[in-house]
Amino acid sequence: MTCAELEERAGGRFPLSGPVLAPPVADAGADVGEPRFGTGDLVRVREWHRPGHTRCPRYVRGKAGVVARVDGTHSVPDIEAHGAARRREPTYSVRFDAADLWRDGQRGVKVHVDLWDSYLERS
Hints:
Layout: H1 3-10, E1 42-45, E2 64-75, H2 77-80, E3 88-97, H3 98-102, E4 110-116, E5 120-122
Antiparallel strand pairs: 1-2, 1-5, 2-3, 3-4
């Protein structure tokens, strides 16, 4: 669909996303085959805010959680989004307490987020 078609359907100006600010990834590094964490391990999501695409939600950055499941090894979308390079690494389902994420008193409510190995550090 063209920009003109979008604007016609929207009944006015339709803002398009800006250019990607992250540099292309030329060297993705070596694949990571073995998971560093196992089910039940306490982990913390790295506190980082690099430009470009990431599958790591801001609301979990810097927060501690528990590995609920190890989901195998998969390609890192942060790298794929910025060039032809690829790197595979373990992924995890990490469980967080909703009250810790949003400070809204939802005690006992759990949130599971799928995260790649490079997003995590031992807590």
